[in-house]
Amino acid sequence: MLHFLLIVLFLVIFELTWLTAVFALLLLIIAAYQGQQSYAQTCTMKLNDAGQVVVIFANKQLASGQISRSSFYNGFCLCLHLQSKSNALSSLLKDQKSPAKFIVIYKDAVKEDEYRLLARLINLGY
Q1: Where is pLDDT greater, at 118 or 60?
Q2: Which one of 36, 50, 51, 78 has the largest count of C-beta atoms within 10 Å of its C-beta?
Q3: What pLDDT, in 10s, does the model give residues 37-57?
């Protein structure tokens, strides 16, 4: 929807030429591709005994970490910021930052009770 509004705004502001038509077509193709990618993405979330959220994506990638205080939620989506704490001695000695993962979950993609549970975990600063 955002890409569509951007295309309409672009066509209203600038006159229609072959260059603007190509740019609008390119934005439309990008919007269709990103929409298809986000619709097809699925994942499984679990809470382990250590209090970390473990996310397993469809392509078998794994992300885990504590829910950071920079996570937030609102009426239509929630954004999880997973901060993993590395215990490796080499990362402590080199003073490396621990990797972080951002996950956006739309309200209509999960059940109502699951959405509320995730919102409670964000409130707790778990």
Answers
A1: 118
A2: 78
A3: 766 667 788 888 777 888 887
